[in-house]
């Protein structure tokens, strides 16, 4: 999108009155990074201090960033492209160093400390970090803690040892965060979820076999396949020491709701969900839930929606990790050319789900 302050295209007088035009005339390096100018007759954009031949003012448009200029159809000048490559490499180095600092620290460094090390403002660093990793610095630190907590408990370490090794300086803070980190209490997780009861039921639908499972927090799995026994093994692998309890008649009505939605998507599906995943996965899954019935989005679209346009492959991996078929509609994500690509439960099932959700023309 153009700058909200950009003159009307073709209005030479307005361009000449704009302070940014004076910065372009002066080839002011201090203005670099604040905006770019684009030239309609050449289709390129430049930084203010560029040494390129100055355009006629009536052919100039201003944009707040290179990304906005490219979204409007302009391409970088050769010098701008080289500059962007250098800037991208420098920013990647900042983020890599910040990740190393977070990984090595007993207590996560603050945003201000990370930004100061890179020599930029906290706001600017926060935006760069999120664009490259798909996570905010805080979310990255939380994900590191989550990995440390799980690794410690899975190795048999005590809860006390684990909480201090993961950077928590008090029992209270650790237990307050443990439900979000683990989906259960630390002692239950250390026991492999042995105190967690999960009800489940198997059924059949036009797409094959279906398994629906629910914890105390909500529906935690909707699995599709050809073999009911294989679906049950998948559930056991996901919750290895949980107590799996066959659903009673009221629970089987929940399965009927899911099957009804698969057969007639217009009915809608509104269930309490127990969604467990990394911070990045949860952001992707939330974006998937916002895709309207009868619509699709590309992996690149989802990456852009969560503020991580470069994380297209990570978005695809998050879709593949989804255990809640149809409730988190990863089947609505397609390739940029509109073609269907991989789906955890098979591309043919993906095709059939989309056909049912597409209104007749």
Note the topology.
Elements: H1 12-17, H2 19-25, E1 36-39, E2 44-46, E3 60-63, H3 66-71, E4 75-76, H4 78-104, H5 111-118, H6 122-133, H7 137-154, H8 159-165, H9 171-182, H10 186-190, E5 197-205, E6 208-215, E7 218-225, H11 228-238, E8 243-246, H12 249-263, H13 279-289, E9 297-298, H14 299-305, H15 312-320, E10 333-334, H16 347-357
Parallel strand pairs: 2-4, 5-8, 9-10
Antiparallel strand pairs: 1-2, 1-3, 5-6, 6-7
Short description:
The chain has 361 residues and is an alpha/beta fold. It is 48% helix and 13% strand. The strands form three sheets. A four-stranded mixed beta sheet has the order 3-1-2-4.
